[in-house]
Amino acid sequence: MNQVADGEIVHFDNVGLRYGTDREVLSDVSFTLFPGSFYFLTGASGAGKTSLLKLLYLAQRPSRGMIRMFGADAITLPRDRLPAFRRRLGVVFQDFRLVPHLSAFDNVALPLRVAGVPEKDIARPVGDMLDWVGLADRKDARPATLSGGEQQRVAIARAVIGRPEMLVADEPTGNVDPEMAIKLLRLFEALNRLGTTVVVATHDVHLLTKVPDSLIMRLDKGRLSDPTGALRYPPRRSSTPSSGPLAGPLSDAPL
Ligand SMILES: Nc1ncnc2c1ncn2[C@@H]1O[C@H](COP(=O)(O)OP(=O)(O)OP(=O)(O)O)[C@@H](O)[C@H]1O
Ligand SMILES: [Mg+2]
Known about the structure:
It is built from 8 helices and 10 strands. Residues 1-5 and 235-253 have low confidence and may be disordered. Helix content is 28%, strand content 22%. The chain has one domain: P-loop containing nucleotide triphosphate hydrolases (Rossmann fold), CATH 3.40.50. Helix 3 packs parallel to helix 5 (148-160). The protein is an alpha/beta fold. Strand 7 (166-170), helix 6 (178-193) and strand 8 (197-201) form a beta-alpha-beta unit. It has a 6-stranded mixed beta sheet, with helices on both faces. A 4-stranded antiparallel beta sheet has the order 2-1-4-5, covered by helices on one side. Magnesium ion (MG) binds next to helix 1. Magnesium ion binds next to helix 1.
């Protein structure tokens, strides 16, 4: 897909957000995301992580400030250009938002079908992806019959299947056990190595240490801090493959 010429995929300048007439839930938020990097967005419950991600996946407009994304002004973007922008994003919602009347398989297949991938080229990648997230035997199940962790894995599979330019994931491991959390992180890393910019919001501080080359953004009551310098310096453009006991399963990743 189109690469961004000036070396940034997203830029926030002095962004503020308030819902209705309440106080601001995000204030003076400025940062740049660089293509191919892996970011964690951390902060306490209520700090504004989901609110910031909503701005990133264009579900919400800020109350003030400037947002550039994929080389365009995201705030004044005409409504009819929004769907094309959204197709460049993979989103894992904190509350999953699976399509209730579709099976796990059809939920995961959705982005490929929307992108016009021929039906004959859908079964294999979707099957492989469901297998990778441990749901091969639940592919015909409707979301309502899946556990929270299973729904979360379907949501993740759906977000990554189309290899988006940017993946935005909101507490994507909040409902799975620690072993599965690591496995899902490996999936994000594999996608990242293929060039996707990854933004994962989490309040699980243990997760942050699991991706060696990740950059950390921290929100505290709606204000951003910069513990690793991620927001000041252009980070490396690609990470080296991780080694050790978890390197093996990566080669089986369906990406
Ligand atoms: N739609 C809304 N209308 C009004 N206030 C909201 C709305 N959504 C969030 N807020 C408020 O904005 C603040 C930030 O909420 P947000 O959901 O962004 O936090 P968070 O960091 O994602 O929290 P968590 O870790 O619990 O998911 C909170 O004070 C919350 O009450
Ligand atoms: Mg949240």
